[in-house]
Amino acid sequence: MYDWPMSVAVSLTKSPAEVTSLAAQFKALGDPTRLDLIINVAASTGAEACVCDLTPETGLTQGTVSHHLRILVEAGLLERSQRGKWSYYSLTAVAKEILKSLNISQPARKSSKANC
Amino acid sequence: MYDWPMSVAVSLTKSPAEVTSLAAQFKALGDPTRLDLIINVAASTGAEACVCDLTPETGLTQGTVSHHLRILVEAGLLERSQRGKWSYYSLTAVAKEILKSLNISQPARKSSKANC
DNA sequence: ATCATACATTGACATTCATCAATTTGAGCA
DNA sequence: TGCTCAAATTGATGAATGTCAATGTATGAT
Prior knowledge:
Two copies of one chain form a homodimer. By secondary structure, chain A is an alpha+beta fold. Chain A contains five helices and three strands; from the N terminus they run ααβααββα. The structure holds a DNA duplex.
């Protein structure tokens, strides 16, 4: 039996607040750069990645990537943990369920780039 | 066994084009009004609804609702069929799979309002 | 033909957004 | 204490977005 993504589950008699929150998650995923970041995090070794590894993937500025990561954190899709000088971003349970729903299942891990 | 939403399935070694297309669908769903429209269509009798029934639900202008519906059509989430003076919008297969993934399954049908 | 209805389209406007360059913060190391 | 590196933040700017009022279009009825 399929394990439903409970964290994003809504009923069709959903409250306006639920619709707003779900729309906010969709909105966060609705930018190609951010969706790419999420997928790259999921594909990274240990299912976490730091900004210096994610930045070159995007072709954007470091500041811009930090900006997008913050949006994903605020949407509840990524979580940040700082170790030493590095910030590691990993998927939240909500994000994992969404990726699973989209058949973006657990990948063959991408080897980390170690750019930093 | 769960029936995976093939229409939105991507692999983690996805092409940039796939990411862009998926992000476009998320973006279309990333507006509270549009997500509300999609859910209202899904909950309507016969899984289709016309603009005059959807408009009062939103509290917005008819023109604005038409605008949002067009965006959803262009994203491949709704399809339009005109019968007489009315335009009926219904979910595409892609939209159905997404709603199913989010556990927004088939509803107890909402009775149509017949505002027009 | 005329008129009313349902919907689409246009133009305008304020707001939000994505991006960059530059600066700041903060942690480890010499 | 300085110095370096990773990341966050700020300010600015051009583009995109959501909304409305007004107009256009097409269909059916009188």
